[in-house]
Amino acid sequence: MRLPVLVFDIETMTDLKSGAHLYDLNLEQSDLEQALAKLRRQESGSDFQRLPLHEIVCISGLWIDENGTMKLFSFSKENFSEAEILSKFLSIFDKRHPTLVSWNGAQFDLPVILYRTMYHGLSAPSLFDQGEIDTQKRYNNYQNRYHHRHIDLMDVMSMFNLRNFQKLDDIAHMLGYPGKRGESGYFVPEYVKTQQWLKLTSYCEGDVLNTWLIYLRWLLLKGQLLNHDHRLWIQATIHYLQGKPEQQDFLNVWRERSLETAFTENDFSTQN
Questions:
Q1: pLDDT tops 70 at residue 182
Q2: How many CB atoms lie within 10 A of CB 224?
Q3: Is the CB of residue 214 less than 8 Å from the CB of residue 170?
Q4: Of the candidates 71, 264, 100, which has an alpha carbon nearest to the alpha carbon of residue 173?
């Protein structure tokens, strides 16, 4: 494993202001969201908005430094504007150059970050440089699908074939991990509107943790972790989360789900 590692996920809702500007709509806010959803269904057959209209309301990450120390964090609309959320996240890449890990990050998270960064007039050369500034990034950058600076697990596990794409929740559940625990990104706008910030960040952090656990299994598959080292990382993750009260539900569900597969049934056997 090339450390440091940053596993990340974003949560979004429709940017009504930009949508009204794009479609030249002069409507009350209560009617605007419904109108934008209807227009999108006419365009694509789905309510899922085009990427530039996804306003970022939370970015969560799990940082693992060179010593294996973990830090789970979230930047959300509870305390920051979207521009501030982006600035805080992007500053990580100005200071460090982590291995970036995501689920569907190449298809969704990074393009949304790109559009929203441009919308706010921010710069992010450390994340989006492809060799124009740092020539080494011609051969290993965060955008190239086949480089290793950003590992989109959904993409690599599908063997880069979109017909094989799988949902994070399904793969996490199958492998003996918590998955989304009955939650859905559908509720994110409601969390923001009703200021349920803990639910928002816990949901986003849950996706990050599931992605991290799948990443460890991916490294084991690839031979980049030995079974013994994989076990140590699992134990370190459990120990870290035991010190975070807001993640006790994640741990409890993980404990139950781990019993469903032979490989994970002993994940908690050495825990008190």
A1: no
A2: 13
A3: no
A4: 264
Mean pLDDT, the chain, rounded, equals: 95
d(CA 101, CA 149): 8
Residue 90, CA atoms < 13 Å, CB-side half-sphere: 22
Place of tokens 């974003």: 10
Flag whether pLDDT at 271 surpasses 70. no
Ordered by where they begin, the domains of the chain are: 5-258 (3.30.420.10)
Which residue is it, tokens 């930047």? 75
Task: Label residue 5 by pLDDT band (50, 70, 90).
Answer: very high
Measure the CA–CA gap between 167 and 103, rounded to whole angstroms.
Answer: 9
Residue 251 to residue 256: CA distance in whole angstroms: 9
| Helix 227-242 / helix 248-258 crossing angle, nearest 10 deg | 140
> What CA–CA distance (Å, rounded) separates 101 from 208?
9
pTM score, two decimals?
0.96
Neighbours of 37 (CB within 10 A): 16
Q: Is the per-residue pLDDT at 185 higher than 90? A: no
Q: How far apart are CA 232 and CA 77, in angstroms?
A: 35
Give the pLDDT band of residue 29 (cuts 50, 70, 90): confident
Written as six digits, the tokens of 189 are 């706008």
Sheet architecture: strand order including 150-152: 70-76, 54-64, 5-14, 99-102, 150-152
Q: Which pLDDT tens digit goes with each residue over 65-106? A: 999 999 999 999 999 999 999 999 999 999 899 999 999 999
- Predicted pLDDT at 183: 74
Q: How far apart are CA 127 and CA 149, in angstroms?
A: 10
**Quick one: DSSP state of residue 213?**
H
